[in-house]
Amino acid sequence: MLTTMEAQRVALRAPTPPDYLVNANERQYLAKICWLLHDGATHALRVTFDSVHPPLYLRQHLAQQQVRSVLRRLLEQKILSETQWSILYPSKKKETSSDTYDAQLLLILLQSICHLSPPYPHGWNTLPLPGDTSLSADVVRLQMYLQEAGGLVGVRSEEYPVMWKQIVQVLLRTGGPEVRIKITRIDQETLTPEQQAHFINLIKGHWSAPEEGALGRLRRLGGPGLVHSRDHVVSKRRMPREKEMLDQEGISAEDRIVLSKVHRQLIESVMVDDIIDRLIQGHVIKVGDKQDVMTPGKNQERMQILLSKILHSKLPYSFKLLCDALSIKYPKLHETVANIRKTVHREGTKDAVDMVSVVQQGLANKYRAMFSRVTPLQWSDAHVSIRDVYVPLEVVTQDGDKLQLNQILPAAVTSGRGKRVLVEGDSGSGKSFLSAMLAYQWAGQTTFFTSNFSFLILLDARTIDGSLAKTIQAQVQTENCKVNTEDVWSILEQHARDTAIIVDNFDEDQCSDELRQVVLGTKLRHASVMIMSRPVEQTDLWMSLDYRLFVLGLSPLNISRCLKTFAVISKMMTEDYETFYEVVSRPEFKLQRYLRSPYVCLVIFGIYTISGRAAVLSLSTLTSLFEQFLVALATNFCRKPEDDRRSGNEFPSEVLSAISSLQALAYRLVVSKEKLMTDGDVDRVVKLLRTATEKRDDVNIATTEDENEADEREIRTVSHPSEGRESNDSLLRRTGILHRADSNRWSFTCNALRDFLAARHLSDTPFKTLDKVLEEQKVLRHARFSQMAAFLCGLFRDNAESPLQSSLVKDMTLQVTKSTRRVSFDKQASSGGEVTSEDTGNDGVGRSHVMNYVHTLQALAECSHNDDLTGSLVRSLPKSIILQRDGLFPTQCLAGLALAVKDESSSITHVEVELLPYHGFQGDELLNLAEALAANSKLQTLIIRWQNFPLMVAFLKAALKNTPSLDTVLVQNSTRKPISHVSASTWVSLHEVAALLRNTVSFSFLDCTASIVLSHLIPYLPNTIRNLDFSGCLVNNVSAAALGSKLESSPDCCLLNLSDTHLESSDLSILFHDLKLCGSLRELILAGTKFDRTGAKAVSEYLKLTSSLQRLDLSRSHLSTDVCQLLACGMSQNTSLATLVIRDAMITREDKELLRKTRTEAELLIDGL
After folding, report:
1. Best label site of 14, 318, 742, 1148, fewest CB within 10 Å?
2. Where does this protein have compositionally biased stretches of type Basic and acidic residues (predicted)?
C-alpha cells in the first residue's frame, strides 16, 4: 500500500525511456536525487546504526561470538562480500568504525544484528504502511528509494518535488539535525554534467539490479518472515523452541527496554514473596539465589536484587516468565507491562534506549576515572582512590537525625516536582569531597543508595558558563563515542524522575541562568537536585526547598581517623604520628574547635609534616593557620631545609612574586562575577615558579656534581631539552594552592584559603586606596565577604597602631550601628517574654540577629588577643543579640560571640538563643558560648527557644553558673514533637538548672507538652522567684501538686501564669488546695481554662480565703452559669481582689451582669464587660 504522494509519483512515471530521450533538466533532477540519497541516506542509516551499536563499543559488539557467527553465515551466503568483511573485521586488530560503512553494508547490518523488528505486515520486502513511522519502516523506505533511483535514467519535473519531499521527510526523522544542512546545500546547488554523472554512477553501481545484489539474496533467504533473535538471524524455517531459546542468550533488547521503563513501578508495587516461587519453578532464579534475594530486610531492596538477576539471566524467556508471575496477584500491573511490551516490540529497538545505556556508562566511567586517582595531600604526589581517603562526615537532617552515606540522596518522586535539597556546611567542612564520594559510589554500584537513580550528575557550579546540556554532554563524551548535546538532554528529560543532580560550589551571585532554572524546577522539573552551599549564602530566600541537610564535618571520633589516614598516605612513622596527635588533641590547643573541618585537619597535618611541631604549637587563629600553611607550602615547593632558610629572605623572589600574583587572582575571584582562573590567568605564576625551579636545580647541580658530571648533564639537556621538564599542571598542583576545575581552568583548593589570599592582597594595598576599595566593593555589607574581612583584621592582629586596622574597625562599627534596630522590653510581660516596637528613644535597646554582625564576630575570633581591637568591636555590638538561624551557625561567629559576651567592655544585656534539633551537633561551640554568658556580669535577660531538650538543659546549666544580674529567664518549647527519651543525667542537670535560678526574678517555662518535665523542674525551683509563667505547658495532677506545694512555702512569688495549661477539675482542686496558704500571690492568670463546677468551686474557695490576690485573669475561659455563680460567691467574700479580666471569655450576657452586680469589699474592676 502506498501513500498519496507515492501513488501520485507512480502514476506520473512512464516506462523508463532510453538515455538519448532524457533532457538535461531530467538528468539534473536525477543527479540531485542520487546525491541526496548517497549523502543523506547513508548519513541517516549510519546515525541509526550508531544509536544501536555506539562507536565506543562497536568493536566489542562485533567481537561477540553470536554476532560474528551471524555475519560469518552472511559471508558464506554471499550476502556480505570479502571487502565488506575486511571492513568489519580489519586485519592487525585495527579499530573499526561505521564511518567507513556504505549504505548497503549499513542496511545489511541494521536488518541482521540490530534487533529491529520487520515492519508490519510486509516485512523488509515492500514499502510499509503509510502511518508506520517506526525506525524499521524508515529503514525500509530508504532501501526502496535507493533501489528505485538505481533503475532510473532521469526524473521528470512533475515527479521531482514529490520524490524530493518524500525522501526528505524520512531523512529528517532518522538523520538528526546534521542532515538538514546536507539537504539545504543539495537543494540549492546546480550540478555540472561531470558532477551529475558522478552521483548517478555512485547509485547505479550499487543499486541498479537489486534482486541480484546482496540485499536481494538477503530477501530471498529471509523474506517477510525473517526471524530476529537477540544476537543473530535465522531463516524463515522455524527452529524447535528449545534450540531457539538456547541460541539466544539473555532477554531481548526489547524486553530490556520494557524492564527499564517499569523498573521503579515493579520495585514499589510488587512483593518478592508473591513471584519468586514462580521464577524458581521456571529456573530463572536458582534455589540457592533465593537466600541472596531475601537477605535484605526491606522489600524494595529485595526487588532490586531480583530484577537485577532477571536482567542478567541467560534465559531469553526470563522477563516473559516475570510477566506471567505478575498476572496472578497483580492483574492491573500485568496489563500495563503487557501493553508497554507490545508497543516496544512493535516499534523495535530505538536509539534513545541504547543512548540511555551509553549516557549511563559514560557518566559512570567519567566519575570512576576522576575519583579513582585523587591527590589528597596537594603538596605531595601520593595518589589514592577517593574510597581510601574518605572519612565519614556528620550529615544531619533538620530533625537532628544523622544520615549514613547511602541515605543522603533524596528519594525519587513519582509525581510532581522532584526534591530540592540544600546541603549546608562551612568552607572546608567536606561538601565537595562528599559530592565526589556520592558520584564515585553511584558509578561503582547504583544500588548502594536507598534511593536508586539511573543517572547521577555531579556539577561544579563554577564551571557552568553557557549551556548546561553541553556541560553534561562533556562528561559523557569520549574519543570513541560522540554523543549529541540534544540527545543527552532529551534522555535526561525523559528519565528526569530517575535523575539526581548534585550541584557543588553553588553561589547565587555566580549562578548561570540555566542552572538557576534547574534549581527552581522550570527545567528538569522532575529531577532531584542537591545544592551544596555555605551558611552565609542566603540561598533559601529565592529557592523553594523541600528540606535541608547539614554537613558538620568530622565527628570527634573520626578526627583521629582522618589524621591517621593522612599519615598513612604520607607514610609517616607511627612514633611521629603519635607525637603529632598528642599535640593537636591537647585541650589547650587553640584550634581544637576547628578540627571538625577536614580541610583544617589537612592544613595542620601539612604544617606539621613540612614545618615541624613548633609551627603547630604557635597556631592560635585561622589567620595564623593559613600564614603557617603558606610558609610550609613555599618551603616544600622550594625543597629548602629548615636550617637553610634565612630571616627576611626566606624564599626566592620568584616564589614571593608568584604568591603575590595568586593573591591578586584570589581577590579578583572574591569580588567579581568570575568563578575560575583560566590557563592565561595563571600563566605568569607558572613562569615565575618555573624560573624558581630552574634556579634551584642549577644551584643543586653546582653544589652536588663535579665538573664532569655537570658537563654530561648539560649534554643530556641539549640533546633532550624536554626530558625531566615538569609540566605546567604538575608545577601548579605542587604549590598545594590550586587544582584543576576543568580542562582549561583552575580553582583554589578551598574557599577559606582563597579568602585568606584575597585578604593578604588587600593588606598590601595602600591605606587610601584600600579605604576606597572597601567602600566600592561593599566588603563590610555582604556576608560573602565576611571571611575575607575577618582574615584582613587577623593579619593586623599584632599591629594595634596600623591606620588600616583603625579604619577597618571604624567601618565595622558603623556597619553594626546600621544593622541594629531599637526595641523595648517589657519586664512585666512574663506571659509573652518581650514586647517589641520600633523605638528610637532612650528607653530602647539595640537589638539584631547575630548573622547581621557576621563580619564583626568573625573578626573578633581572629583578633582575640588584641585588646584594643577587640574592645572597639565589642563595644559596637548592641545590648540585645538574637542567635537564631534556620541552619548552622558559622563556627567563627559562635567563637566571636563568645569572646564578645565575656569581654569586660561588653554592653550585652539581653541574649535570645534558638536551639534547633541539629544544633546538638554544634554542642561544643554552643556550650562554649553558654560558659561565656555565665562570665558576663551584665546579663539581665536570657531567652531560650528550643527544639532539642538535652541541648537546652546543658546550655542553661552552663549559662546559669554565675549570673548575679540575670533577672529574667524565658525558656520556650518551639517544637510540636513529644520528648521521646531523656537520660538520667539530663534529669539531674535539669534539677541543677532549677537550683541555679536563685538570682532570677522572673522565670518563664512555656509550651512544654511533657508534664513529666514540670514534675522534675518545679520542686527544685528556688523560693525567691517572684514571677512564674508556665503558659502553654501540660499540667497534670503531679505537677499541679508540686506547684501548689512550691507556692505554699514561697514567701516572694507574686505572679503565677497558667494560661492554656489544659487544667482539669482534679488539677485545679489539688492546686488551689495548697494556694489557699500562699500569702504572697498577687496576680493569677488562668486564661484559656475550661472550668467545670468542681474546678470553679476550687477557685471560689480560694477567693474566699486569700487576702493577697489583687488580679484574676480568666480571659478566653469557658464560664458557664454555674461557674459564674460560684465565682460571684467567692468574690463576694474576698477582701483584696481589685481586677477581674474576662476578655474574650465564653460567657453569656446575663452571667456578665451577675458578675458585675457582685458586691465585694474592695472596689472591683471587671475588664471585658
Report:
1. 14
2. 713-730
Cell of 772: 576606597
1116 phi and psi angles, rounded to 5 deg:
60, 15
The residues, ordered by sequence, that sit 6+ positions from 1012 with a Cβ below 8 Å of its Cβ are: none
Three-state SS at 211: helix
Strand partners, 422: 531, 548
Q: What is the C-alpha separation between 1129 and 1124, in angstroms, rounded? A: 9
Backbone CA torsion sign across 524, 525, 526, 528:
positive
Which has the closest alpha carbon to 139: 186, 175, 98, 165? 175
Cβ-count burial of 1079 within 10 angstroms (0-12 exposed, 13-18 middle, 19+ buried)?
exposed
> Are 499 and 386 part of one and the same domain?
yes
Taking residue 91's Cβ as centre, other Cβ atoms within 10 Å add up to 6
Q: Give residue-wise pLDDT tens across range 230-278.
A: 333 333 333 343 334 334 467 877 787 788 778 778 887 889 888 888 8
Q: Contact at 8 Å (CB) between 964 and 937?
A: yes
Residue 788 has pLDDT above 60, yes or no: yes
Specify whether 151 is located in the same domain as 95.
yes
Which amino acid, 694?
E
Asked whether the predicted pLDDT for residue 291 surpasses 60, the reply is yes
Q: Are the C-beta atoms of 773 and 738 separated by less than 8 Å?
A: no
Is the pTM higher than 0.70? The answer reads no
Cα–Cα separations (whole angstroms), residue 1055 to 944, 1027, 1048, 1095: 21, 5, 13, 20
The number of residues making up the chain comes to 1169
Instruction: Judge whether 746 and 738 are in contact, CB under 8 Å.
Output: yes
How confident is residue 20, by pLDDT bands cut at 50, 70 and 90? very low
Q: Which residue has the higher pLDDT, 1116 or 365?
A: 1116
Is position 475 within any domain?
yes
Q: Are 1065 and 1094 in contact (CB under 8 A)?
A: yes
Q: Containing H/E element for 1046?
A: helix 1037-1048
pLDDT of residue 850: 80
pLDDT category, 347, cuts 50, 70, 90?
A: low
Q: What is the DSSP letter of 1090?
A: B
Written as one letter, the residue type at 32 is K
| Residues 262, 391 within the same domain | no
Cell of 151: 533503475
Tell whether 668 and 759 lie within a shared domain.
yes
Largest CA distance in the chain: 135
Burial of 455 (C-beta count, 10 Å sphere; 0-12/13-18/19+): buried
Which amino acid would we find at residue 133?
T
Which amino acid is it at 768? K
Number of structural domains (the chain) is 5
Residues 94, 45 within the same domain: yes
**Enclosing domain of residue 95:** 24-218
Cα–Cα distance between 192 and 195 in angstroms, integer?
5
In angstroms, rounded to a whole number, what is the distance separating the alpha carbons of residues 338 and 1039?
A: 65
Element at 1100 (helix H, strand E): helix 1093-1105
**What is the 3-state secondary structure of 946-960?**
ECCHHHHHHHHHHHC
In DSSP terms, 1118 is beta-bridged to 1090, 1146
Q: Which residue has the cell 522539573?
A: 525
Phi–psi pair at 815, nearest 5 degrees? -65, -35
Q: Is residue 59 assigned to a domain?
A: yes
- Give the number of C-alpha atoms closer than 13 A to the C-alpha of residue 887, restricted to the C-beta side: 23
The CATH number linked to 308 is: 1.10.533.10
Residue among 1012, 1005, 1047 at smallest CA distance from 1029: 1005
Spell 481-512 as b/e; 16+ CB within 10 A means b: bebbbebbbebbeebbbbbbbbbbbbbbebbb
Q: Give the closest residue to 924 by CA, choosing from 394, 503, 502.
A: 394
